[in-house]
């Protein structure tokens, strides 16, 4: 049996948050229920942020309440502040994620806070989660390039990863939000980040704007990363990162990893079905 590499499915959240069409909750439920048959350990399905800023995530409570929960899967939600945390807990999220940026420009555009302010906001969330043993993931956006500030220094990413890990995030997902990273810039960034956080606690989160996401996954695999975020059907993008396109497609990552001899534990046929559903949702 090959080495295990986990794909963390983010399509129902990162994927759908940027769709132009207002997607009914029933369609989201159907997608998540299909994905729940594929063999994932973790699926991100919700985001408790301002509905004015991200209207597509407004029905997140209904999504968490309506999905058919499959045994062994943790259904995850983004929580930017205590209000989001409380909503995620009431809705029954199995794990939550805080999200920061390695660049000041994107931090302001995305969450209306500096990097330092965002870390302060996360403190009560992590403390509350600790009390109830709720796993908290930490995202870092713009780990190589920022749409506002340009190239991002690997040391900035390492410093923030160190903070989030010390605050109690069990895993740090490193986001190439713009999809402009290269295998070289990914390797340079990971070399610095690995000094602060072990590779076994890192995840790669690559958007495929420049068609290099799979090459970037290879670079991260070579540096010891064994968890990758992906969105079925290549759904996605970030409303606050102009020019960014979808996440790397789950079914492509699964195929690629399988070809390399890794075990993902996923059922390729279910992924193809879910990818068709995702594409149909996008087409409307
Ligand atoms: C972060 C905030 C909330 C800060 O919010 P703020 O702008 O600092 O201001 P606020 O706290 O005064 O709140 C502004 C408005 O949002 C409301 N509000 C405040 N908090 C909540 C909440 N939890 N749930 C629902 N509503 C909330 C609040 O009530 C108020 O409503 P209004 O008075 O205007 O009617 C806001 O800026 C926001 O929602 N930003 C959107 C962030 C977002 O969702 N970005 C996309 C996801 S991150 C991402 O995609 C990157 C990632 C993770 O995938 C990795 C990668 O690819 O890089």
From TrEMBL:
Gene3D superfamilies, per database record: Aldolase class I (3.20.20.70)
A GO molecular-function descriptor: metal ion binding
EC number: 4.1.3.4
Annotated ranges, domain Pyruvate carboxyltransferase: 5-272
Domain of life of the organism encoding this protein: Bacteria
GO annotation terms (biological process): ketone body biosynthetic process; L-leucine catabolic process
Record keywords: Lyase, Metal-binding
Family under the similarity heading: Belongs to the HMG-CoA lyase family.
Record protein name field: Hydroxymethylglutaryl-CoA lyase
Protein's organism: Parasedimentitalea huanghaiensis
């Amino acid at each position: 049996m090959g080495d295990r590499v986990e794909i963390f499915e983010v399509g129902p959240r990162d994927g759908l948050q940027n769709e132009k069409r207002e997607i009914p909750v029933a369609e989201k439920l159907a997608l998540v229920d299909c994905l729940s048959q594929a063999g994932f350990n973790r699926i991100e399905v919700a985001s408790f942020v301002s509905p004015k800023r991200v209207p597509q995530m407004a029905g997140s409570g209904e999504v968490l309440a309506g999905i058919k929960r499959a045994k062994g899967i943790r259904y995850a939600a983004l929580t930017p502040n205590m209000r989001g945390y409380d909503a995620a807990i009431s809705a029954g999220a199995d794990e939550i994620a805080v999200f920061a940026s390695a660049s000041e420009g994107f931090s302001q555009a995305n969450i209306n806070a500096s990097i330092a302010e965002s870390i302060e906001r996360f403190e009560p969330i992590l403390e509350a989660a600790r009390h109830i043993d709720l796993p908290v993931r930490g995202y870092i956006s713009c780990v190589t390039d920022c749409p506002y500030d340009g190239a991002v220094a690997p040391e900035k990413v390492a410093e923030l990863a160190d903070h989030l890990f010390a605050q109690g995030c069990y895993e740090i997902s490193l986001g190439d939000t713009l999809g402009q990273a290269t295998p070289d810039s990914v390797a340079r960034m990971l070399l610095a980040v690995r000094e602060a956080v072990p590779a076994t606690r890192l995840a790669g989160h690559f958007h495929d704007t420049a068609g290099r996401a799979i090459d970037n996954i290879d670079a991260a695999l070579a540096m010891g990363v064994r968890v990758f975020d992906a969105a079925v059907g290549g759904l996605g993008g970030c409303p606050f990162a102009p020019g960014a396109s979808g996440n790397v497609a789950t079914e492509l990552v699964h195929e690629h990893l399988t070809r390399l001899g890794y075990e993902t534990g996923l059922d390729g046929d279910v992924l193809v079905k879910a990818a068709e559903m995702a594409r149909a949702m996008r087409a409307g």
